[in-house]
Amino acid sequence: DGAEAASPAAEEKAGEEEEDDLGYRLFPDRNKKPQSFLVRSLFTFHNRCQLMLRMTLDTNPYAQLLLEAMKQSGCTVFNDRHFSCENCDGCVSGGFDSATSQIVLCQNNIRQQSHMNRVVTHELIHAFDHCRAHVDWFKNVKHLACSEIRAANLSGDCTLMNEIARFKFGLKGHHQTCVRDRAIRSILAVRKVSKETAEKAVDEVFDACFNDLEPFGRIPHSKTDAKRAYRDFQNRDRYNANL
């Protein structure tokens, strides 16, 4: 299960910053010219990725809530424009490219629908944060840390079943430990910073960002929780209108 890393990043002007530092090395297809439809259609990875993405967007309550929240925040997501199935480095499953407001899905690393559901949700949380706040993805590691904490906390990355599948068994505070570890891992996947720097950034913003549950309003520990959160979100305006 690869690190669902945030923001491969905007390519800086030549000489300003090493391209490598911004995580683009993990997403080699980002800088290639788009292939023709005919060429792409020959690759089953690409077709499978597109089919799984469509299934996630149509049926997954985590993704549906985030898409609705993005729309209400003025950032409507379009499948063809804002998602891109590409081959990536072996260690990542997806990324959010803030330069293009595009979510990269690693077609060579996502093989199951449940994995696609989590990756899309994780990256949509980054996209939601990008939409609602002035996130400095590249210069401010605390901003990146905050979004990674939120993504690990709210996407289902740290559900009990997923952790058992990783042979990690719960003790008190286990969810928080999982969120912290995965946030650190994601930062290290896309930024050339020391582990100490990543840990310090995560620890400094952890409480505030862990408790920022927008747009879910709760930590969705299961699909049932996510469905409830989605229903509550849909009814928010109705409640406000009656006040």
Summarize the structure.
The protein has helices at 37-41, 44-59, 61-72, 79-82, 113-132, 141-154, 160-165, 174-190, 195-210, 223-241; strands at residues 3-4, 83-86, 92-97, 102-106. By secondary structure, the chain is an alpha/beta fold.
Commentary on this structure:
- The protein is an alpha/beta fold and 243 residues long.
- The chain has two domains: 23-134, Zincin-like (2-Layer Sandwich), CATH 3.30.2010; 136-216, no CATH class.
- Helix content is 53%, strand content 7%.
- It has ten helices and four strands; from the N terminus they run E-H-H-H-H-E-E-E-H-H-H-H-H-H.
- The protein has helices spanning 37-41, 44-59, 61-72, 79-82, 113-132, 141-154, 160-165, 174-190, 195-210, 223-241, and strands at residues 3-4, 83-86, 92-97, 102-106.
- A four-stranded mixed sheet has the order 1-3-4-2, sandwiched between helices.
- Helix 6 packs across helix 8.
- The protein is globular.
- The chain starts with a strand and ends with a helix.
- The model is unreliable at 7-20 (pLDDT under 50).
- Its EC number is 3.4.24.-.
- Keywords: Hydrolase, Metal-binding, Metalloprotease, Protease.
- Belongs to the peptidase M76 family.
